[in-house]
Amino acid sequence: MANLMQRMKENRSSPVVIDSSRAKLLGINSDYVSIIDYKILDVTENERQILIKCEEKAIEHAREIAKNTMELSKVFYEAQKTLSAKGNGIFSKWFEQLGFKKDFVYMCLKRNEIFLEVRDEKVFNIPERAIKTISKVRDKIDSDEILGIIKSDKPVEAAKRYTESLSGNPTNFSGETKEKLNIKLKEIQKTIREYEKLIKELKQEEEKVLKELMVEINL
After folding, report:
1. Cut 0.70: pTM above it
2. Do 171 and 164 form a contact (C-beta atoms < 8 A)?
3. Which residues, including other chains, have CB under 8 Å from residue 53's CB and lie 6 or more apart?
4. Residues 156-184: tens digit of each pLDDT
5. Own/partner pairs for 18-26, CB < 8 Å, 24+ apart?
6. Contact of 131 with 107, CB cutoff 8 Å
7. How far, rounded to the nearest angstrom, does the alpha carbon of residue 30 sit from its chain's CA centroid?
């Protein structure tokens, strides 16, 4: 859904023109501008008109899902706050009797917690994986960094980069970083070879001195 919402905000360089009479027959809003290039899908005109209707409905329902998720998150937050003094398990009993699953409710709560910090409604659109990762590192990064993840075109990847950076074991390096590390590695390997050569020379010198010492002892 996040990708769909993102594409809705992108510039529409090649809008699809919908025939008004055909649109009326299919129940399509003739003012709706498609965001999909149907030429690459190799569909017939009739299929295109049907798919545009499906597209319009998908976007409409995606908006509703995002709106409902936001409102539910606020509701669960308020209920949890109200029941917090009642003891463990009371809040769970409350939402379970309403038919909600624990994972869904607590994901909504996580979204609302992040929303209260950054005040950006896009937090209700991004994937759950991104929310889980942000929640893990929230105490280690500031609000601007969290906002940067949320507004990223790929919030899951953006959140993952912060996790890797904070763990001290990053897996993604820039080209410049790789080049510096390769140079450092070559310098270390060169130093090792120089020490190995020196050790070999010292061993040869040691053997020479030992032989001379044995000669002196035998005299």
Report:
1. no
2. yes
3. 26, 27, 28
4. 998 888 888 776 555 555 566 677 787 88
5. 18/49, 18/52, 19/49, 22/49, 23/49, 26/50, 26/53
6. yes
7. 36
